[in-house]
Design goal:
It is a single chain. The strands form 2 sheets. An 8-stranded mixed beta sheet has the order 6-7-8-3-9-10-12-11, with helices on both faces. It has a 4-stranded antiparallel beta sheet with strand order 2-1-4-5, covered by helices on one side. The chain is an alpha/beta fold. The protein has one domain: P-loop containing nucleotide triphosphate hydrolases (Rossmann fold). The protein has 11 helices and 12 strands. β11 and β12 form a beta hairpin. It binds iron/sulfur cluster.
């Protein structure tokens, strides 16, 4: 039984200018101890997907269809109080994009980690929460004596470590990390990725790493899902996606990452992703795809398994 199973999930935003289909019939699973990379350009729906797994889609967005099963518990129908008591942070936590800049400037980092524990854990005293905060700081590579430091006294990398400590405060089996190294320099980025790798191994934690950076995902992911315009267009093991990408969009993405493929010509994919209020009929990548035919413009390609564990939604692979 997978740890997390997402079936035919649709998440729409009901805006004044129309319905934005940010996540449109997406299915995937995450196994215990596995890291799934969720890749795609910004605006493809990957962060919305992350929020929806915690049932935290901001209005005017909402889950309109589909199921999220965590350890066989139906998260989609769980009432808000149970989500708070039993699910969020205890079973699944999230490292939100840009969270390190949202730390409270007038509270010590120790108090902020302790608060995250006290909000979600009953029967814990403030003293116990602070002791746990000190342990967590040590776990993420910060001297516990810094517990009384304020965010402005820390570097960007240290602030991100504090955010990771908060996400791990209640030992969740699954952590969603949304662009966890954005705004950090390359050296600190590598340190944060090494920390995530170490923690994942040490605690046999599962992770969903959301990023536009395929090179970053390649460092840690066991499997990779590639999203385009609200849909997963390809899903496979990291080896299948990086060494033998099948979907023309994945091929374009991989070839545009010089670090992955050596010093080869940068082949950026021309064109823009479609407006998700009014996506084209048929394959959503058709307006940018060099292989598009009339069939692609008429009907949406089914997602099929072309080899064990390797799924693609493209007419090129369907008879
Ligand atoms: Fe290109 Fe057609 Fe495949 Fe879409 S279905 S990616 S348009 S070949």
């Amino acid at each position: 039984m997978p740890l997390l199973e997402v079936k035919d999930l649709r998440v729409y935003y009901y805006t004044l200018k129309g319905v934005v289909k940010a996540v449109d019939k997406i299915s995937f699973s995450v196994e215990k101890g596995e890291t799934l990379g969720l890749a795609g350009e910004s605006g493809c729906g990957k962060s919305t997907l992350g929020f929806s797994l915690l049932r935290l889609v901001p209005p005017p967005g909402r889950i309109v269809e589909g199921k999220i099963l965590f350890e066989n518990m139906d998260v989609t129908s769980l009432p808000e109080d149970r989500l708070r008591r039993e699910y969020r942070w205890k079973r699944v936590s999230m490292i939100f994009q840009g969270a390190m800049n949202a730390l409270n400037p007038v509270k010590t980092i120790g108090d902020q980690i302790a608060e995250a524990i006290l909000v979600h854990e009953e029967n814990v005293t403030k003293k116990e929460a602070l002791e746990r905060a000190a342990e967590l700081l040590k776990m993420v590579g910060i001297d516990p004596r810094r517990i009384k430091s304020y965010p402005h006294e820390l570097s960007g990398g240290m602030k991100q470590r504090v955010i990771i400590a908060m996400a791990l405060a209640l030992n969740p089996p699954l952590v969603i990390a949304d662009e966890p190294t954005t705004a950090l320099d390359v050296v600190v980025q590598a340190q944060i990725m090494n920390l995530l790798k170490r923690l994942k191994k040490q605690y046999n934690m599962s992770m969903i790493l959301i990023s536009h950076d395929l090179a970053l995902i390649a460092e840690i992911a066991d499997r990779v899902a590639v999203m385009y315009a609200g849909k997963i267009v390809e899903l496979g093991t990291a080896e299948q996606i990086y060494n033998s990408p099948k979907h023309p969009y994945t091929q374009g993405l991989i070839s545009s990452v010089p670090r992955l493929r050596g010093p080869k010509k940068l082949e950026w994919i021309p064109g823009q992703p479609p407006d998700l209020r009014n996506p084209p009929p048929g394959c959503r990548f058709a307006p940018r795809c060099p292989y598009a035919t009339d069939r692609c413009r008429r009907g949406e390609p089914p997602v099929i398994e072309i080899e064990p564990q390797h799924y693609v939604g493209c007419w090129l692979y369907t008879k």
